[in-house]
Amino acid sequence: MTFKQTVFFARAAIIACAFSLLWPAQSHAAEQAGARIADFKLDNGLQLVVIPDHRAPVVTHMIWYKVGAADETAGKSGLAHFLEHLMFKGTAKNPAGRFSTVVARIGGQENAFTSQDYTGYYQRVPTEQLKTVMEFEADRMTGLVLTDAVVLPERDVILEERNQRLENNPRARLGEQMDAALFLNHPYGRPIIGWRHEMEGLTRDDALEFYKRFYGPNDAVVVIAGDIEPDAALKLAQETYGQVKPQANIQQRKRPQEPPQVSPRTLTLADPRVEQPAVQRNYLVPSFSTAKPGQSEALEVLGHVVGTGANSRFYRELVVNKRVATSAGAYYDSSAFDMGKFGLYASPGTGVTLPQLETAMDAVIAEVVEKGITAEELERAKSRMIADAIYAQDNQASMARWYGQALMTGATVEDVKLWPSRLKAVTAQQVQDAAREWLDKKRSVTGYLIKDTAPPSEQPASLQPVKVEKRS
Amino acid sequence: MTFKQTVFFARAAIIACAFSLLWPAQSHAAEQAGARIADFKLDNGLQLVVIPDHRAPVVTHMIWYKVGAADETAGKSGLAHFLEHLMFKGTAKNPAGRFSTVVARIGGQENAFTSQDYTGYYQRVPTEQLKTVMEFEADRMTGLVLTDAVVLPERDVILEERNQRLENNPRARLGEQMDAALFLNHPYGRPIIGWRHEMEGLTRDDALEFYKRFYGPNDAVVVIAGDIEPDAALKLAQETYGQVKPQANIQQRKRPQEPPQVSPRTLTLADPRVEQPAVQRNYLVPSFSTAKPGQSEALEVLGHVVGTGANSRFYRELVVNKRVATSAGAYYDSSAFDMGKFGLYASPGTGVTLPQLETAMDAVIAEVVEKGITAEELERAKSRMIADAIYAQDNQASMARWYGQALMTGATVEDVKLWPSRLKAVTAQQVQDAAREWLDKKRSVTGYLIKDTAPPSEQPASLQPVKVEKRS
């Protein structure tokens, strides 16, 4: 399906993370917008968030389900994302393709995405077509019809997607290996797209069983941003989603949690396509929803001070002063229903080995742990993050995504509104404390990405699946 | 329950592995014994193996269930072992304690054990008491009765067992961390005894649900070694186990398998109680039941040549010649329903760092990969392994355990009988090929065990469970 672009909000993705949970309610304009955001709950359990924005006669409509890759049964990895694809395969009322055809005909855009914690679908359409897309979404919320004739070819599509996104992308391969090593027990250690050998075995029954366990109005949040008033949106929602019965057997997300993390881990991925070697470090840290008050916000500031932009410690020290890196950065991925991640990365300059680079990175972290950050760094980080959020607010889809993502990962509308004031309250001491407590190597995996110079014939065992045939 | 000693056939345990699947049918005496081993199947699916041995008027009676820690639902780690403990808590017919009291009164011994792949119970009693223990085992096969009054205190017992076996044992802690890093997807990555935070939540309902899914005659193998003839044992089995109805909902073992292993991993465990640092390397390799014909036997020889005894490459090169190690060894753990492991280990001599020791270990492995082993090494390894098995045959319980373990991990009685002739057929070329194909670092985890010299107050984050409380 070439018209459907599937987006992963990959937990390792740096760009997606930079926007997580930023909400600019501190600015005057944004306060007004924040005040007008409406949060409803229908009788069948569906939550509706409306973000009015009348600059153009269009709306962004997103429906989010509280289910992601981390909710898959062990051995069925990739199922949440597979179901996302299969949601386009039609219902008794609307045969496969009709929904997308209608969106295209009215000049709309559509998209879908799967993360560890949620699955979402969105359309951007002229306001007068909003009810149409809501009818389609309400229909496929519980009315999906699947046959092997549509399921099996789509399985080939996701396998090819894995080829493109993962297997032909050394950095993505490194991230996959690092997640598998970082999480000793939690399903976040499995790739969202799935392990190939498990994707190959996914069936129609697997998809329908998963669908019935997790899709329903009582597990969904609809976010509408755009040229509509809350009451009008509520009326449309009641006429469409409101007609869907709650699903009795919807399961709450409850995943195996992590044991204490006690061993620093390292791994090396050699890939012949690597042009730029790299060091990546991921620490297991609290997410926004699992952190104690203030901790998550302190980690946001820490990520910014250490590794965002040309004024960051990493850039100044590793790229400019010591010239050991050609690029370097850090980020905090706060947006997760369970634990979050704090990441560091750098690519070495000419003649610099990865261990040398890692040592230099560690020295920067050690200095923050020992001496903390300056008042100027603290204020610059806060101002910058809030300003970024204000600029980004200009994008209807981003706004809808922030709210949706927050509501999917254990936060509330109120949490999103309060976030800037919580960010403002962070002290330099809290940032230093966060660095000391959470940037502990025992909670981390360090990955080296290097160019594999061995001829392909010498790599057979590593690139073959583990053999599992039985003798008898 | 102080009288019940629970044994883990831990997959990392070196001593247990050395005996795996060794069966001395090549010797004249053993051939006779082998010929007299009987293999029956009752109508309800129960398999009975009888190994006559009339030297003393006693029998070793073992019942093995095809369920282990690897069959636990994610999030319920430790459940198979917990159920093993709870199996002593009584039935409607025999209240808690009666079975053990009877065994003790007649001067018998009893034991129980849980592995990743099986759970077993055994008694060694005078032959005339065999029927009594079979009646007790048949009764608790489906008749277990559990109340919270017995379940909850027993949960404290397994938690204390974890304290003793794992948390106070740096080498066991290292092994736990290495398994978690070696297996990216397979449940062998979880500890048999369970992660503490999951053990704390195990309930009566969890145990009973697991029991009903996995315990029944159609999932069990009884092995009797000792002073009894096959027909007499069969008659007793029919009168006892034969009366138990097959369980309709017994589930076949089917575990998530591994993706290709592409990244060499390392980890470091620092523990204040370490007196002797060590390097451990585990490779993911085929088990006896997943290997191609000859591969597993070649890995047995490889393990012996590289790391068993004073003539091994590791001992000669690392301990005697280079003096970089005070001890060193290697082993192959072939006995697994899914994949096996090949392990290397060494402790450094004075003034030798762990990276230096690892480099020396790697050099030994590289030489075997490049140049293979000598004809003398090959023959010595084969002779020694067969001789060891002959000597070990003297032990009734070991014989029962070999057969039971083999039948639990996908092998047959015939496989066990044929094993020595398969071992004899191994060539030096096959051993070199096995080293080249399977001792690939991409399929491995290397663990460093070091003494933690930091004061306890500086280790808080690492020794605390990951916090999971929610804000809202």
Describe this structure in words.
The structure is a homodimer of 472-residue chains. Chain A is of the alpha+beta class. In chain A, 42% of the residues lie in helices and 18% in strands. Chain A contains 18 helices and twelve strands. A seven-stranded mixed sheet of chain A has the order 1-5-6-4-7-3-2, with helices on both faces. In chain A, strands 8-12-9-11-10 form a five-stranded mixed sheet, sandwiched between helices. In chain A, a hairpin with a 5-residue loop joins strand 2 (38-41) and strand 3 (47-52). In chain A, helix 13 (354-371) packs across helix 17. The longest helix of chain A has 20 residues, at 148-167. Chain A is globular, with a radius of gyration of 23 Å. The two termini of chain A are 42 Å apart. The model of chain A is unreliable at 1-32 and 459-472 (pLDDT under 50). At the A-B interface, helix 7, helix 8, strand 8 and helix 18 of A face helix 7, helix 8, strand 8 and helix 18 of B. Strand 8 (265-271) of chain A pairs antiparallel with strand 8 (265-271) of chain B, so a sheet runs across the interface.
Terminal CA distance of chain A reads 42 Å
What share of residues are in beta strands of chain A? Answer: 15-25%
Nearest-angstrom radius of gyration of chain A? 23 Å
Can you summarize the main beta sheet of chain A? 7 strands, mixed
Per DSSP E runs of 2 or more residues, the count of β-strands of chain A stands at: 12
